[in-house]
From TrEMBL, chain A:
Record lineage: Bacteria, Pseudomonadati, Pseudomonadota, Gammaproteobacteria, Cellvibrionales
Domain of life according to the entry: Bacteria
Protein name as it appears in the record: SGNH/GDSL hydrolase family protein
From TrEMBL, chain B:
Name of the protein this chain belongs to: Probable alginate O-acetylase
Source taxonomy: Bacteria, Pseudomonadati, Pseudomonadota, Gammaproteobacteria, Cellvibrionales
Pathway(s) per entry: Glycan biosynthesis; alginate biosynthesis
Residue spans crossing the bilayer: 7-25, 37-56, 76-97, 323-347, 359-380, 410-429, 441-459
InterPro entries listed in its UniProt record: Ac/AlaTfrase_AlgI/DltB, AlgI, MB_O-acyltransferase, MBOAT_fam
């Protein structure tokens, strides 16, 4: 049964003009009111990270001049892409680090991509290479491989602009979330302690109090975790990483390069890591056994000089200098060409 | 490309703008065909050649079939068409399911045979455009019309972007005049078309994705054994989600086509107010149910062979209809349940006669129909037969509902409120379409309502979910 048009085609043009004008005015008024309300509550526009945004960046990592940053929060909130671009103008910096997730599945994805022959800076510590943590970023990889389409590529470009300029574009401000939250707890949405750019790189916002609290939380969580899940013996750990070495070899055989990188930490983060996964038994063995290229902050005084207010991440206003120091190290070691 | 994306917004503005400006109907059709293929490539450009080649093959073979001198030769051409279309559909959609099922059967017989999972990507909309093409070829075979001479017109009929990937499944007879004769755009068609697109996006983004999906997903993705209340909440939320997701898509499709002066067939007519299961199938996915009726049920003999054969034909049609939706036993059982319900209804009508029930009895029967349909949706949504069975048992154990009520979360209240409003709305609208309702509403009310819907769409951000029916 075809759609019947007889019921509305007799309507005068005035009907449609009034309807369309009114609908635009009402929609505009409601959206502006909501935007004003949230801004009054202290919320500001921000880019939201997601598998779609990750895939947008991932889709750019196809050429030899890609410098891909793979890792977790220490890279996502530590590396400053404009500084990379300034120091290495021939490279295209691409941020694939994901906050809170260890990165080996992303490295495998790059290894399995026959097009990829760029340079990878793989931010991972010995704990992040325990087999249990290898696949944390796999949902991002799966989204990129199976759901990301040209449609979503263009959509996300527009969404970035929309999120950059409006607060109402945040999921937490959606009408259903707001009603559900009001019914459940009555609380206002969480104000994140970080900001992101559309490149997916960002920075953390610390106050003295929040930094102390975060340092304590991170330390307590890590300690509890390591006690509940003691790391495997170094021999077993090393044996399992044979696969990692194969992925690296695959990328390097295509003309690419992989640099393992352990970024600076301090306080309990450093002492706990050292007591449960001693560097000489784990990291050093990995590098020498598989002949890998690596940078470890413990061997680099310039990197140790940067303060981490929460014992894990560099300060937002140090990102520029920290990135410059790291890139300079890579240049000095002949790992990238300026 | 998805309707609920910025990409489509941009695409649609460009398509409609140029469509208006391009002179001559033939050039306009070329433009529509080109942009329809761009729309399809927005999902996966690598499957565009498959769409074009199967469409071309069907057009060519239908011509040859019509020209064939003998009945035997025509039949041969028809079998070729069926083999190619169903072969392609079978390969992409059912190859792993069939191999895996055969392996399980072999294992039950004590034979050892392992099937590795296939890495086959299902081309989007393949079930829909295959059925488009098949209906055309079958009608040419039956001599209902002469095959279309113009290849471009045929490609446009199959590939017209509003209905390409998730229907409605359009017949050539419904589109022939609209493709061959110039379409006219007017303020009325543009206005109503945009209203329909707005309603469709509201159904998809606000209701399906934001209100229903979180509750339905939380229930159907959980690993624990379900309680009665949670099972009903999950099933009701999914009932809302599946309707708003699919009806949202087709409402957008109808609206987008209408803006350009095309009228597509309506696909949903307030199915949750159905009085009985045959009434449900006259209101749910109408273009598929009429397709199955015309080309499968009637082809099998329909109701011409007495009650037993009629029941067999109904059951076969619904089982195949279930399998059309997805390559899994849960879909087959879902189809089987609907087949059984349709047979039961026929028996009941035979026993009790076709008396016209009073108001109260009508309400009771409508509620009974709705409740049963909600239970059958569990089989459609569950990821395993065991999960579906557990949910069904939990839903039928009503005593637990009275003894162990659990406080609802905010999201569950929203889903419950929305499904209540949706069902009430459908009961009030009954046989009227959205177009009828909008056409009878005063301009200020239409304007304010549409403005409110647009605001709710904008105020429901979140990364888009693919339309559920895209996977079919």
């Amino acid at each position: 049964m075809l759609l019947s048009t007889s019921s509305f085609e007799r309507k005068p043009n005035r009907f449609w003009l009034v309807s369309m004008t009114l609908s635009l005015l009402v929609a505009l008024a409601l959206c502006l009111t909501a935007e004003y309300y949230w801004r009054e509550q202290g919320y500001t526009p921000r880019i939201l990270d997601s598998a779609m945004l990750w895939s947008l960046e991932r889709s750019k990592a196809t050429t030899g001049n890609s410098l891909v940053f793979v890792g977790a929060s220490r890279t996502q909130f530590g590396i400053h892409p404009p500084t990379v671009k300034k120091l290495l103008p021939h490279y295209q910096p691409i941020m694939l680090a994901v906050n809170g997730m260890y990165p080996l599945s992303t490295l495998r994805n790059l290894a399995e991509d026959p097009q990829f022959n760029g340079t990878v800076l793989l931010d991972v510590d010995a704990r992040g290479m325990i087999k249990d943590f290898w696949w944390m970023q796999q949902p991002y990889v799966d989204y990129y491989e199976h759901q990301f389409t040209p449609n979503w590529y263009i959509h996300r470009l527009f969404l970035n602009v929309w999120q950059k300029h409006t607060v109402i574009s945040r999921d937490a401000m959606s009408i259903t979330e707001t009603i559900a939250r009001t019914l459940d707890t009555g609380r206002m949405p969480w104000k994140p302690n970080y900001e992101l750019k559309s490149s997916r790189a960002g920075h953390l916002i610390f106050t003295e109090e929040s930094a102390k609290r975060l340092a304590k939380n991170f330390g307590d969580q890590l300690e509890q975790f390591l006690e509940d899940h003691p790391p495997p013996p170094a021999d077993q750990w090393l044996q399992e990483l044979n696969l990692l070495a194969q992925w690296i070899e695959t990328i390097e055989n295509r003309g690419g390069k992989v640099i393992l990188y352990e970024p600076p930490v301090s306080g309990r983060q450093k002492s706990l890591a050292e007591s449960f996964l001693p560097k000489e038994q784990y990291w050093d063995q990995l590098i020498s056994t598989y002949h890998l290229t690596a940078i470890n902050y413990q061997e680099e005084p310039t990197l140790q000089a940067f303060e981490q207010p929460d014992e894990s991440h560099v300060k937002g206003d140090s990102r520029d200098e920290y990135t410059a120091a790291l890139i300079q190290l890579m240049i000095d070691k002949g790992l990238v060409e300026p | 490309m998805q309707f609920d994306s910025f990409t489509f917004l941009l695409f649609f503005v460009v398509v409609v703008g140029c469509y208006r400006l391009i002179p001559g109907w033939s050039h306009k059709k070329n433009w529509l065909l080109f942009t329809s293929y761009v729309f399809y490539a927005g999902w996966n450009p690598w499957f565009l050649p498959l769409l074009i080649s199967t469409s071309f093959a069907d057009w060519f073979m239908a011509q040859k079939m019509a020209q064939a001198g003998s009945r035997r030769k025509r039949k041969l051409w028809l079998w070729s068409i069926l083999s190619i279309n169903l072969g392609v559909l079978g390969y992409f959609k059912y190859a792993y399911f069939l191999s895996d099922s055969a392996a399980q059967f072999a294992s039950a017989l004590g034979l050892s045979w392992q099937v590795d999972p296939f890495d086959i990507i299902l081309p989007i909309g393949i079930s829909f455009y295959t059925f488009h093409s098949l209906s055309y070829c079958l009608d040419v075979y039956r001599g209902k019309f002469a095959p279309v001479k113009n290849l471009r017109d045929y490609l446009l009929y199959v590939g017209f972007f509003p209905q390409l990937v998730a229907g409605p499944i359009v017949r050539w007879r419904e589109m022939q005049e609209q493709i061959e004769q110039p379409r006219h755009m007017s303020l009325a068609t543009t206005g109503m078309g945009l209203c329909l697109v707005t309603v469709g996006l509201f159904e998809k983004i606000v209701l399906a994705d934001a209100a229903f999906a979180p509750v339905a997903d939380a229930y159907f993705n959980q690993a624990t054994e379900p309680g009665t209340q949670q099972a009903w909440l999950g099933a009701l939320a999914f009932s809302g989600q599946i309707f708003c997701d699919f009806a949202g898509y087709t409402t957008c499709a109808l609206g987008a086509a209408l803006v350009m002066g095309f009228r597509l067939p309506i696909n949903f007519l307030n199915p949750y107010c159905a009085l009985g299961f045959s009434d449900f199938w006259r209101r749910w996915h109408i273009s598929l149910s009429t397709w199955l009726r015309d080309y499968l049920y009637i082809g099998l003999g329909g109701n011409r062979g007495g009650p037993w054969l009629t029941s067999r034909n109904l059951m076969l049609t619904m089982l195949i209809g279930g399998l059309w939706h997805g390559a899994a036993w849960t879909f087959v059982i879902w189809g089987g349940l609907h087949g059984a319900l349709l047979i039961l209804e026929r028996v009941a009508k035979h026993v009790f006669g076709t008396v016209s029930p009073g108001f109260v009895l009508r309400c009771v029967l409508r509620l009974l129909t709705l409740g049963t349909i909600v239970i059958t949706w569990v089989w459609f949504r569950s990821q395993s037969l065991a999960g579906a069975w557990q949910s069904t048992l939990a839903m039928l154990d009503v005593s637990q509902l009275l003894h162990n009520p659990v406080p609802l979360t905010g999201a569950q209240w929203i889903a419950l409120g929305c499904i209540g409003a949706l069902i009430t709305g459908q009961w009030l609208m009954r046989d009227r379409t959205m177009v009828d309702v909008i056409a009878k509403t005063p301009a200020p009310v239409t304007g304010i309502t549409m403005g409110l819907l647009i605001a709710l769409i904008v105020l429901s951000p979140g990364e888009s979910h693919a339309f559920i029916y895209f996977q079919f």
